[in-house]
Design goal:
Elements: E1 11-12, E2 26-30, H1 42-46, E3 51-55, H2 63-72, E4 75-76, E5 81-82, E6 85-86, H3 91-106, H4 108-111, E7 116-120, E8 127-134, E9 137-144, E10 150-158, E11 163-167, E12 172-174, E13 177-179, E14 182-189, E15 194-201, H5 207-221, E16 235-236, E17 252-254, E18 260-268, H6 285-288, E19 293-301, E20 305-308, H7 314-324, H8 357-366, H9 374-381, E21 431-433, E22 438-439, E23 444-449, E24 472-478, H10 481-484, E25 489-490, E26 494-496
Parallel strand pairs: 1-2, 2-3, 3-4, 18-24, 21-25
Antiparallel strand pairs: 5-6, 7-8, 8-9, 9-15, 10-14, 11-12, 11-15, 13-14, 16-22, 17-20, 18-19, 20-26, 21-23, 22-23, 23-24
């Protein structure tokens, strides 16, 4: 790898066998279950240059990972956005990281060298230390395992002539108590905090080191040990209603009347979270890896609306482009299945795909319409009576695109799959964009409805696919238009009625 690009390394999510340490310079120490007395990372002990990154993705208290990294001269995989679910670091953990990282980077030779002694004696209970030595320098990394402040004598050292002592976390010089040839170093460690004590030959106290120490002091001065888990509210983009139409426009069908009702929606739990999953409380660790389906029941209020009889077709979208001159700002993957600006001749009546959320909105605005909300889409697909599928209950052949041809079909290919009101193609064929964009400031997403003809096989980690019940919803993280566009996502429109 160095011959191709120096500095590139292999690092797997799992922990490699010891025999592979030679070709894996780093690995994750994921969910390392440490004991009260800090443990020693086996791979790091075997090969001191092997870097292991601690990570416990769903934890809201990361002090245990930070302690392990500090005691083992290792690192952390900071993962606040876990596939779209926000799991933040609290202020204390951020402060610990800010204090720790500059020390690790400055003293790399110590942390990757052979002079490591784990668990040296410490003068305070529930406080532990590792010793790192190299070229006459001694550095102790300490952790306070308790929820109380530890203050007082920590280390007893033989006095060495010309040696000076420093608190690397607080960024200040220490003046030890000396008795009978023993120097006692004292310092303060906050609850669940870190200590870093350095014994340095006086000749190595350079202006550069003093500048480093001043920077550490400035960082220490703004340390915040608040352990409150930060929260972020999820906000949904407001729906822009259309002018109320006095009559149902051509090619559209009025949804069954509804003023107030309860809707039951199902979503398969994945690591990207649920509607408002911004912390572990809303996405239990074990449950997220069982991929269970969770039910949401919520009250809704729906004003009268009409929905397109079918999804928007390639021909309809081509007419929109010709009339409006619309071109997306980011054109990557836009209408990827078209050739020379034209849809395939045999697919003019198939649902248009390879369009993103903004592309769909642009079409809807041109047509004097808008995208349906999730609730509107489900209400129409269930014909207002809570049915499982648009045609009734039970999935069977002949009512929707089940994927037999591994491709889309005409939007009117399955008249037996219509709702009683006459809406086509609400199940299978392609997912439908809905007007459901939401964000908590870190991640944007939208909800898809209806399922598609394609279902990825071979792993439960793949996103949902295949025909889906009318109540089923899938969360799609919005990353960039070129990636949001897909061969399995289309849309249909609605208008508000007077």
């Amino acid at each position: 790898l160095d011959a191709v690009r120096p500095g590139v390394i292999l690092e797997g999510e799992g922990t490699p066998p010891q025999a592979q340490i030679a070709d894996h310079h780093a690995s994750w120490a994921q969910w390392f279950d440490d004991s009260e007395v800090p443990g020693v990372l086996r791979h790091k002990w075997f090969e001191r240059r092997h870097l292991q990154h601690q990570t416990q993705r769903w934890n809201t208290d990361h002090s245990a990972e930070i302690h392990t990294a500090w005691m083992n001269g290792s690192g952390l995989m900071i993962w606040e956005n876990v596939f779209g679910a926000w799991v933040p670091y609290n202020e204390r953990d951020r402060s610990l990281l800010r204090a720790m990282l500059p020390v690790q980077r400055r003293f790399t030779a110590l942390f990757s060298g052979e002079g490591w002694t784990p668990l040296v004696p410490v003068g305070q209970p529930d406080t532990y230390a590792s010793l790192w030595t190299h070229d006459g320098v001694r550095l102790w990394t300490l952790v306070n395992r308790t929820a109380r402040t530890v203050a007082g004598a920590l280390l007893d050292l033989p006095v060495a002539p010309g040696e000076r002592y420093f608190d690397l976390i607080a960024g200040r010089e220490l003046y030890p108590t000396i008795h009978d040839g023993v120097a006692t170093l004292s310092a303060t460690l906050p609850p669940r905090g870190l200590g870093g004590l350095l014994a340095l030959p006086a000749a190595q106290v350079t202006p550069d080191f003093e500048q480093f120490l001043s920077a550490q002091a400035a960082t220490h001065a703004r340390a915040n040990y608040d352990t409150t888990t930060p929260r972020r509210a999820t906000h949904t983009v407001p729906v822009k209603r259309t002018p109320p139409a006095a009559t149902v426009p051509p090619g559209m069908i009025a949804a069954p009347y509804c003023w107030k009702k309860y809707l039951s929606t199902q979503m398969r739990i994945r690591e990207c979270g649920l509607y408002d999953a911004t912390a572990i409380e809303e996405l239990p660790f074990r449950e997220s890896y069982q991929f269970q389906v969770r039910d949401f029941t919520r009250p809704v209020k729906l004003s009268p609306f009409a929905m397109d009889e079918t999804p928007v077709t390639n021909a309809q979208f081509a007419a929109f482009l010709a009339a409006s001159g619309y071109r997306p700002v980011q054109s990557e993957n836009f209408l990827k299945h078209w050739s020379d600006g034209n849809p395939p001749a045999d697919k003019t009546d198939h649902p248009v795909v390879w369009v993103g959320l903004d592309d769909a909105r642009a079409y809807a605005a041109w047509a004097g319409k808008r995208l349906p909300t999730e609730d509107e889409w489900q209400h129409a697909a269930q014909n207002g009576d809570g049915r499982e599928y648009p045609w009734g209950n039970g999935l069977r052949a002949g009512v929707c695109n089940l994927g037999e041809t591994a491709d889309t079909t005409s939007v009117k290919a399955f008249p037996a799959g219509r709702t009683p009101a006459g809406l086509y193609d609400l199940c299978g064929n392609v997912w439908h964009w809905t007007e459901s964009e939401a964000s908590e400031g870190r991640t944007r997403y939208a909800m898809l409805r209806g399922g598609s003809h394609f279902a990825a096989q071979g792993s439960c980690w793949y996103v949902d696919g295949g025909p889906r019940p009318a109540s089923f919803t899938t969360k799609l993280l919005l990353m960039w238009p070129g990636l949001d566009r897909s061969a399995t996502i289309g849309f249909r429109c609605v208008v508000d009625l007077a």
